[in-house]
Amino acid sequence: MRIVYCGDIVARPGREAVLNNIGRLRELYNFDVLIVNTDNAAHGFGTTPGICRDFLEQGVTAIVTGDHVWNQREIIPFLDDCKQIVRPLNYPESLPGKGARVIELPNGKKILVAEVVGRLFMEAVDCPVQVMDKLLQSYRLGANVDAIFVDIHAEATAEKISFGHYLDGRVSAVIGSHTHVPTSDFMILPKGTAYQTDAGMCGDYSGVIGFDKEEPMARLARRFTGGRLVPNKGPGTLWGTFIETDDKTGLAVKIEQIKLLSSPSEVPAAQRAVAAPRA
């Protein structure tokens, strides 16, 4: 199975970077599954049903969210209505939506998409390890699902790395999100799970994690929150991850980092420093 994952989409630049590149992603990777993270897609905070539909109508297979999933009230009923969106699994089960969904592909294969949020430097949530252990009692690679993709939405790198090793051999991929900075540690772990600490964001990199730099710099200098975070409005860049799995075992055989420019002619030279893979 060929899986493409696009990291945290931040506001309009991030949405456009992904939507403008879906055809290019299909050409480069011939993906079976396209997963996007919309945790910051609605003006930087959360997502909406309309934004999700825009992605689903363009061929996105599954949508994951994160700690901002509740920021836009209109998304709450959509979490139950749409069977292709996932909210964090380690929130209380009574909340709307599901933390994991099995999606059947046109070729008949099945992928389990799950997401957890971290506990270090984040709001209090249930243990991500315990909820994943419980989930994996019902799903096994090569048995009732062909691939298992897990997004860990967390602050601390050590927590993400530990989580990846904990699930090694039991899932196809563990890919991190939330910090909006792409890491270069993409690898296949010893037992066959593809891993990366953070896929990075899809958005405008000229500011601070997708937002205009003035307010973050002011907060750094004065040590208190005095203004609002406003998303950057410049051209965005798509950062993501490509994973290929073995058809028999469901474990990873390949992982690559993805970088695609929304509109190369509009992106400053500093952001064009790393060439898109296979371009």
- The count of helical stretches stands at 7
Termini Cα gap: 22 Å
Overall, the morphology is globular
- Work out the helicity level: 10-25%
Largest sheet: 6 strands, mixed
> SSE order in H/E notation?
EEHHEHEHEEEHEHEEEEHEE
Per DSSP E runs of 2 or more residues, the count of β-strands stands at 14
Structural class computed from helices and strand pairing: alpha/beta
Strand content: 15-25%
In the predicted model, the low-confidence regions spanning at least 5 consecutive residues are: 272-279
Radius of gyration: 18 Å
Spatially, the strands of the biggest sheet line up as: 5-4-3-1-13-14
Mean pLDDT over the full residue set: 93
Task: Explain what the structure shows.
- The strands form three sheets. The protein has a six-stranded mixed beta sheet with strand order 5-4-3-1-13-14. Strands 6-7-8-9-11-10 form a six-stranded mixed beta sheet, covered by helices on one side. A two-stranded parallel sheet has the order 2-12.
- The model is unreliable at 272-279 (pLDDT under 50).
- With 279 residues, it is of the alpha/beta class.
- The chain has helices at residues 11-19, 22-29, 49-57, 75-81, 128-136, 157-167, 214-222, and strands at 2-6, 8-9, 33-37, 62-64, 85-86, 100-104, 110-117, 147-153, 173-177, 187-188, 194-196, 201-202, 237-245, 252-261.
- The protein is built from seven helices and 14 strands.
- The radius of gyration is 18 Å and the shape is globular.
- The two termini are 22 Å apart.
